[in-house]
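Action item from last meeting closed. Structure (326 res):
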């Protein structure tokens, strides 16, 4: 009896609140989701209507399958690939690089398996500054590379005018030089393609690999390097053999090796700098930098292709683009 009295005299312990079930933490599609989407759709419609009132978007001529418009541009979501086609090999620009980028995006959840900051925007300590720096860096690098590859219009060719003009009468050009058109003023590299077309030099070389004068001349001695068995033509069973297949080494260097090495070099440079500064420390930080750089480069290339390419895909200012209203 005494034990029961003491127990009754003690104050009752405060009951803990019942934890919410997962079902109670969910939100409804209506109105929590659909209402926000409806407001966004209304704002977009009003904005689009106002733009159509104040900005003239004339129709072009009636479609003519025998006449290709100049410029002929891809849809906006492929403009970045069309822009890449102007600067590097078409296989890399149109197929390989997009495949690598999509593979990279798909691999992120499998490589970065940390649950820290999961589902949170900018979920790491330096995420915001990493995003801003990577975005600005990507825009600057894309703009600089596009400008350099359009040297005649952006005057970037002046950076390479120190390369002398070639002697048209010399059989072998000892030091690197640039071949200029007859009667025209000397210019530097107008684009990376000039490395395979205008740049010339010679080095002593044994008489093999197509060399018969003890001098290896760039580019003329390297533009038709035969691959093994290129003298075999036709099909042998189910195995298709090539016929008269040759490698153009100067073209490979100008359109594949140099552009890809440049992209990889700038990517490694920003990662190294951010690591040395102390902002990049985890896999999450690394993927934030890489994802931001790739996505912003995609958008920057799309903007260049949309607003800065005119007739003949030449680089021009947006206000110089002319539309034939028909």
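Sequence:
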């Amino acid at each position: 009896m005494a034990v029961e009295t003491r127990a009754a005299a003690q104050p009752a312990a405060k009951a803990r609140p019942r934890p919410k079930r997962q079902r109670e933490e969910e939100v409804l599609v209506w109105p929590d989701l659909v209402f926000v989407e409806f407001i966004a759709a209304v704002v977009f419609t009003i904005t689009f209507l106002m733009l159509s009132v104040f900005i003239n978007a004339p129709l072009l001529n009636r479609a003519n399958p025998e006449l290709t418009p100049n410029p002929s541009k891809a849809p906006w979501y492929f403009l970045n690939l069309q822009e890449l086609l102007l600067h590097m090999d078409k296989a890399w620009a149109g197929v390989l690089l997009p495949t690598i980028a999509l593979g990279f995006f798909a691999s992120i959840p499998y490589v970065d398996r940390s649950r820290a900051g999961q589902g949170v925007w900018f979920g790491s300590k330096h995420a915001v500054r990493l995003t801003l720096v990577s975005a600005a860096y990507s825009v600057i690098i894309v703009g600089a590379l596009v400008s350099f590859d359009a040297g005649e219009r952006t005057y970037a060719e002046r950076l390479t005018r120190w390369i002398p003009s070639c002697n048209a009468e010399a059989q072998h050009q000892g030091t690197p030089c640039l071949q200029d058109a007859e009667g025209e003023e000397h210019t530097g590299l107008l684009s990376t393609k000039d490395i395979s077309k205008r740049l010339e030099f010679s080095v002593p070389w044994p008489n093999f690999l197509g060399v018969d004068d003890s001098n290896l001349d760039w580019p003329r001695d390297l533009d038709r390097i035969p691959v093994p068995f290129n003298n075999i033509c036709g099909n042998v069973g189910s195995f298709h053999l090539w016929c008269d297949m040759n490698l153009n080494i100067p073209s490979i260097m100008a359109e594949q090796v140099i552009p890809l090495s440049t992209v990889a070099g700038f990517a490694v440079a920003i990662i190294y700098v951010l690591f040395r500064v102390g902002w990049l420390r985890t896999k999450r930080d690394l993927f934030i930098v890489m994802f931001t750089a790739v996505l912003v480069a995609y958008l920057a290339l799309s903007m260049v292709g949309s607003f800065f390419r005119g007739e003949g895909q030449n680089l021009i200012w947006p206000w110089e683009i002319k539309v034939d209203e028909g």
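Note appended to the action item: The longest strand covers residues 199-204.
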